[in-house]
Write a structure and sequence with these properties.
By secondary structure, the chain is an alpha/beta fold. It has 2 domains: 2-150 and 293-344, Quinone Oxidoreductase, Chain A, domain 1; 157-287, 3-Layer(aba) Sandwich (Rossmann fold). The chain has helices at 39-45, 94-97, 129-132, 142-145, 151-161, 178-187, 202-210, 223-230, 246-255, 276-279, 296-304, 323-331, 333-336; strands at residues 2-6, 12-16, 28-36, 56-57, 62-69, 81-84, 123-126, 133-135, 170-174, 194-198, 215-217, 236-241, 256-264, 285-287, 314-319, 340-344. The strands form 3 sheets. Strands 3, 5, 6, 7, 8, 15 and 16 form a 7-stranded mixed beta sheet that branches. It has a 6-stranded parallel beta sheet with strand order 11-10-9-12-13-14, sandwiched between helices. The protein has a 3-stranded antiparallel beta sheet with strand order 2-1-4, with no helix packed on it. Helix 6 (178-187) links the parallel strand 9 and strand 10. Helix 5 packs across helix 6. The longest helix is centred in the middle third of the chain and has 11 residues, at 151-161.
Length: 356
Amino acid sequence: MKGYVFHGAGRSAWEEVPDPALKDPTDAIVRVGAVTICGTDLHILKGDVPEVRPGTVLGHEAVGEVVEVGADVRTVRPGDRVLVSCITACGRCAYCRRGAYGQCRGGGGWILGHLTDGTQAEYVRVPHADLSVHPLPGALDSKDAVLLADIFPTAYEVGVLNGRVRPGDTVAVVGAGPVGLAAISTARLYSPERIVVVDLAPARLEAARGLGADAVAEPGEGPEQLVADLTDGLGADVVIEAVGVPETFELCTRMVRPGGHVANVGVHGAPATLHLEDLWIKNVTLTTGLVDTYSTPMLLRMAAAGRLPAARLVTHVFPLERMQEAYDVFAGAAGTGALKVVLGGAQHEVVAVDAA
């Protein structure tokens, strides 16, 4: 089969790789039908994630068809159409027993495309399949469903729930990439009074408006003052950091009101300054987190019922063999306007190419 292989910082290729095989009785082999690219994959390609060894197939999000299962797999069988979660869960360790699957100590957590071969291939081996793949409702399109493998549960759990969004809140989202846009969509489920979005790209701010943002601003347009003006000088109840650079993190801590929450979702590759000299007196709660995906079954039901606008985040669709082109489009989002890029495998379904 073919897969997209990391060969070290700045080097990768769509090339022949060995077919995956069952290694443990809890494994499943899935034929990939739709897969997407994550900002974390770009971090890996830059060499920012040293745990990823050269020779690893990238990717941690997919929809596909189960073709083989180990003897101990009980929840899916060959022929089932499934979502492959970005998080693998053993189900037995102390963290899994309380639903903190992202911190699994039994061979799970974020392993696909990180510590083991991932989903950007024609087939993928999924360890601990009973808790790591989810049967899909028949009405849910694959290129929409694949967004629930990572960005929607990440935005919802690490952003909205950790930030404790409540009815009537002012919510600020810094970063209108795919996760930030998913945070807008899931925050709206809690009826905030207003959502303010900050981003550098006018196209992403326009997308944010389309998904329900009440006010938008570029960093140079004074987002701190905008939030202050909208809240009688108090600041936002919840600020969601969805970029992962020091400047945006520090902006979030300046926008939050006393007693508010800063929910950090962005993946940081450099230290950020925590200004405790300003924050210590403000009763601010700061949360971080890797997604656990405990919300995925609920989000799948919401998507099947048309309550999550997943399809509106997909801007480009390619066949699987055009993986390198898809990476180029996604990495060049400032020029291409890409939000989520989805690749569909011809063996599973035919999808439009370059659909906007």
